[in-house]
Every structure is written in C-alpha cells, then in structure tokens.
Design brief:
about 65% helix
Length: about 110
C-alpha cells in the first residue's frame, strides 16, 4: 500500500517528549522505556517486558499513540492484534513484525 510522502514523513518523524510513548508495567508503574518515533517504538518493543506490551495493547494505548502520529493503517493493525488473543512472546513477535513492516513501507514512501 502506497502512502503519500508527506504523511509518511510525518508518521516517521520524532515527536517531542510530551507526545512520546512511555511504557508502563501497570497503572502508575512506569518502566525505563520511552519511544520518540515509530522506529524507536519498534526497537523498544523488542526489549521491554512482555507484560508491559500486553498491558498497553489491552488498554488500546498503542492505538491512541499511533492515531496521534497519524497512522490509521497501523491503528487498524493494532485493533486486529488486540482481538487476536496473542500474548507473551508470540504477541511481541507479531508486534515487532507489524511495526517493522510498516516502518519499511513508510521509508520507501519517503524515498520517492
């Protein structure tokens, strides 16, 4: 799927600290992981505790952040992932795959 160059650039651009994604273990329990861009988010997903990934996915936090970035396609993918019933390392693997695939797609669009 092709993405307009300007939109792809916007989605891939780093955001300021107020708009970054802060990972939590649970409500009121931040962990030492933050993503300022979609690419950085994809890297953090590889290493943060899987319980944090499950926590954020079930709450819809990933969808809200991706919507703020302007990536409607990735929001849809997160909705599907939330409904998949995946957990643990299977969830991490699928989340990494989805985000990395999208980052590559967006990078191709910006190169045009």
């Amino acid at each position: 799927m092709s993405v307009a160059k300007g939109l792809a650039q916007r989605i891939l651009s780093p955001v300021n600290p107020e708009r970054a994604f802060y990972f939590y273990a649970d409500v009121g329990m931040p962990i030492d992981a933050v993503a300022h861009s979609l690419k950085e988010f994809g890297e953090k997903v590889k290493t943060v505790d899987v319980k944090s990934l499950e926590f954020h996915l079930m709450r819809g936090d990933f969808e809200k952040w991706l919507y703020m970035l302007g990536d409607a396609e990735l929001v849809k993918a997160m909705v599907r992932l939330r409904g998949s019933g995946l957990s643990g390392e299977k969830l991490r693997a699928e989340l990494v795959r989805i985000v990395q695939t999208r980052v590559r797609q967006l990078q191709r669009s910006t190169a045009k």
